[in-house]
Amino acid sequence: MKHFLRMFVQVCLYFYCKCLWRCLKFVVRKLTGQCELQRICYNTKPGAARTMKIEASLKGSKSKVINVHPDAIEKTIDDIMELKRINPDINPQLGVSLQACLLQIVGYRNLIAEVEKLRREPYDSENPQHEEMLLKLWKCLKPNSPLKARISKQWCEIGFQGDDPKTDFRGMGLLGLYNLVYFAEWDTEIAQQVLTDSLHPKYSQLSKAEWEKKKFDKAIGYSFAIVGINITDLAYNLLVSGALKTHFYNVAPEAPTLTHFQQTFCYLMHEFHKFWIDEDPLDIMEFNRVREKFYKRILRQLQNPEMALCPHFAASESLINM
């Protein structure tokens, strides 16, 4: 009985707050002459702060515009203007601002679907395209060391667990391979340096003389490719949870794309490498602890509405006062 009463009170409180909120919005509109969408667009600068407020407002409205198809955004804007009784001739900038926000909102949703599709697609050694990408990864990371055979212990040199990398992609499917290839192909110098450092991360900060003087028993490294797949999982979780909205809404002036996601992966790989060295783990068994600590740090950074994780990739300079 007590449980039923508690549920009843919670339901009543929910509808009370909802009605109170609608009444408050009505009063504010009468006082300002502007609907909530107008107030957000006119008082909040473009980027994550504005887009996330617009998204929250649209989710709480009667119209279901969040699930609109990208090709129907312009018509959706017209419908919103009509529903809110806003004259587009008097408020031309509002339509432009709403369109930019909707492109980001719908684009983020579509990016999740695209990433999920890659994650669910398993690596197929019978697929020539999959094999070509895998071989490209080797060539980018080890250009001066030809691969002697497709099945080879050489794969361990770039951080796979055995002589056939296909078994290591099970957790993240093709998404893990896509990210590693992008990192190796488009950020080659850093990727090669991270690979080298991952073998002896402590040594990378010391001269040979200093290294020999300190006589370290062992440099705590990690498996580059395996960690890359693990960081892909981290980036995937940030995306699906919505945490990456802050970043993407700040760096993508329109719809965030798979390239934005891959650039973010490159940033996370580089930052995790530095974080691993700073943490100075006793052995590889501390990997999960270090990863979790790194994940929480990234989450804290993304709570800042002005955060852009990788400004060197940012398109924020392209953001105009929309």
Keywords:
single chain; 322 residues; mainly alpha; 13 helices; elongated; disordered C terminus; GTPase activator activity
How is this structure best described in words?
The chain has 322 residues and is mostly helical. The chain has two domains: 34-119, no CATH class; 124-303, no CATH class. 62% of the residues lie in helices and 0% in strands. Helix 2 (36-43) runs antiparallel to helix 3 and helix 3 packs across helix 5. The longest helix has 31 residues, at 2-32. The protein is elongated, with a radius of gyration of 25 Å. It starts with a helix and ends in a 20-residue tail after the last helix. GO terms for molecular function: GTPase activator activity. It comes from Taeniopygia guttata (Zebra finch). Residues 129-302 form the ELMO domain.
